[in-house]
Amino acid sequence: MSIVVRDVREHELDSVLALNNAAGPAILPLDSARLRHFYETAEYFRVAERDGTLAGFLIGVGSDADHDSRNFQWFRERYPRFFYIDRVVVASRRRGGGVGRAFYADVQSHAELRYPLVTCEVFLEGVTDPVLLFHGSFGFREVGQRVLVRNGMRAAMLMKELCSYPWVRDTYGGNLPDVPWITTRSVLEAPPAPRSTGTGGP
C-alpha cells in the first residue's frame, strides 16, 4: 500500500515517543516533555502511515527557532538561514521500504519554498555507510564534524543547497500562495524547551 505523510496528531505522541526511544543509538532519546514541546512549536512534525499503522516520523525546525540542540547551534553559527532536520525515525519493520525517501522528498518540498539550505547530522559510530549513502543520494554533503560532549559520539554535519529557493524568493517573496500543500502546520505558543534533555546532543 502507499505511504501517507501527514502532520502528527496529538493522540499519536505516545507512539512517536516509543518509536524514538526504540530506534537505537543513532537517535538521541526523548522524554514526553521534550516531545510535547516539539508538538507545540516545531515548524515541521509529520508522521508516515503505511497499511494503517505508524511507520515513522520526522521533526524539523527553521533557523530562527528557539531550539537548544547544540548541533542546531553549530549550523546557526555558520549559516544565516537554513532548515534543520532534528530527527527522522522509521520503525524497524518498515526500514528499506521507502518511508525515509518519502519523508525526505516531503521535507524538501516544504523547505525549498522557505530556506536556501537543509541541514542534518549523522552519527559516525556503528554501521553508517547506508545512512551516508542515503543522504548522499539526496544531495547532502559533509560540511564539518563535531563530537558530542555528553557521549563522545562523532557526528558528520551535512548540508544540501536547495536550488529552487532563489526562484521562489524572487518570485513570491514572503507571500506564498495559500494552498493546502504549501501551508505550514499551526503551532501553539509554548514555554521554552526544557534545557536538560537536548535532542541534538551537547
TrEMBL record:
The organism's superkingdom is given as Bacteria
- Coiled-coil residues are none
Broad class of enzyme this protein falls into? transferase
The N-acetyltransferase domain covers 3-164
Name the keywords, alphabetized.
Answer: Acyltransferase, Transferase
- Could you tell me which Pfam families the record lists for this protein? Acetyltransf_1
**GO molecular function (one):** acyltransferase activity
Query: Which EC numbers does the record give?
Result: 2.3.1.-
Q: What is the protein's given name?
A: GNAT family N-acetyltransferase
- Native species: Lysobacter zhanggongensis
Kindly list the organism's lineage: Bacteria, Pseudomonadati, Pseudomonadota, Gammaproteobacteria, Lysobacterales
